[in-house]
Amino acid sequence: MPLIPESIIDEILSRADIAELISRYMPLRRAGRHFKALCPFHKERTPSFTVNADKQIFHCFGCGVGGNVFSFLMQHDRLTFPEAVRQLADHVGISIPEAAAGASSGEHERLLALMEKACIYFERRLSEPQGGRAARAYLQQRGVSSDTAKRFRLGLSSTGWRGLVTAAKATQVSPEQLEAAGLVVPGKSGHYDRFRNRLMFPIQDVRGRVIGFGGRSLDAQEPKYLNSPETAVYSKGRHVFGLPQAREAIAAAKTVVLVEGYFDCVVLADAGIRHVISPLGTALTTEQARLLKRYAETVILAFDADAAGEAATLRGIDLVVEAGLQVRIAQLPKGVDPDDVVRNSGRAGIEAVLQQSIGILEYLLQVGMARHPVSTAEGKVRVARFVLPTIAKVPDAMLRREYVRIVAGTLRLDEAAVAEELAKVQPRDAVARPEKMPRAPAASASVPPGSERMLTALILDEPARLGALQGRLALEDVTDVRLQRLLSLVGEHSTPGQATSAAQIVSRLADEPDYAALVTELVALAQTVSAKDAAFEDCVRRLRRSATQRQLAKLHHQLEQGAKDEQHERKLLAEYQTIQRG
Ligand SMILES: [Zn+2]
Fold this sequence. Notes:
Number of helices: 26
Number of domains: 5
Strand content: 5-15%
Strand order of the largest sheet: 1-2-3-4-5
Mean pLDDT: 85
CATH class of the largest domain: Alpha Beta
Low-confidence stretches: 427-449
Shape: globular
Bound molecules: zinc ion
């Protein structure tokens, strides 16, 4: 994705209003100069979530989250920073120029508008009293209610060869435009519809915009399932089917169920199992796994119980494990798809299947042992070798070791030998990479209370104060590296006569929510001070004194260690005295 220029990000920031934005999601109560609300990010009975409209930031005193308008959208709607910026840009009426290499913004928008029109066209055809009757009956027979069909915006393509081409012409849309959208195919005697007499499943992006379609044939037409080709707005490995419909349920359950087909997805949703998506027939990709990680901690793979499903599961496991997600595998009876389970035994049936899903190790051992007899030593080793590549991808070292123990125990192999084998299959880059670093402690715990903290707080509160440090205190004199980094960001983004703002600094820290929360925490701290200018001067004096002391101690140490020669010693002494005099 092309980088969005900072000037545009700042322009959006200056036009958006955080109180207005947040009040679209939840009621805000005015409390003095600020607003208060029950925090949407943690459970609480008394409001500790505050919105500071002057500074255009929010902060929760309960759970410590904080940030600006972009951070709010990122955390509340689980958007990436560019997605949040684009969404707000739409809201405040600013257009973001796309990089010259990609499709121009206008082209992109036109394509999306066309997909939306096509979706409405298909939806209308499905609801036609006569024309849509057979398709509606088919949906009902497969266990999809009309409510669910509407929620997923299912539709029907025309039975003829030129239904869409003709309908589009009437609205001034050319066949060439439809071709760019992947909806029609050029033929010898003109363009014809790609999707004919098919039940249409619109593929939507995170924001619910239609970017492609999957069509299920309603006659003997092959292939049974036909998908949109890649277009400027749709690339296969990057999207999944059903995400906007499932997003909230996934985030609430912290779990996502992956199924193979469109029907599995809508039938399960119809039965009330809403945290379900489909990776669009193709095997799961790394990008899809990362996308899911934004919403879920655990993935349940519920692929069909056939050879293709097993292969998809085995491929999927490694990707999902690598993305750092927990994986469970649903065990479906042979030859039975998830939507069959719902039709045969209802919601309770599929819930039981999901609840009884097993962990990766159990699954891999099971598949491995079905493939190789463990009655022989060679067989046992083969099973271990089958399981180990996945274990090697587990990011957590402790978990890896535990898995080795279980594999060795189950197969009655020597644990050290299994560990040795594991070391061999480990991907090369994983060897060089250090073990995952422990998470930094919460901002408030890691920053000692004191002058450095207050100084940074007062500068973030009024960034123009940074100039007052000149000649008195260098940024290196601030010993806390986190605070020092915030101060240097303020410096980098202020120009003479035009200081930055806390909300702008938060934008620059979009990928580091902990830092953004530290900014809002410090701004909140500054609000507790009544005489800010006096407090600021006090901080500068104290910090200057301690910086001087550190310098003196250093010189003292050097002198004690002995100078290189007499001249050097004289120089150190002179320096010492100059500093001492202040
Ligand atoms: Zn909170």
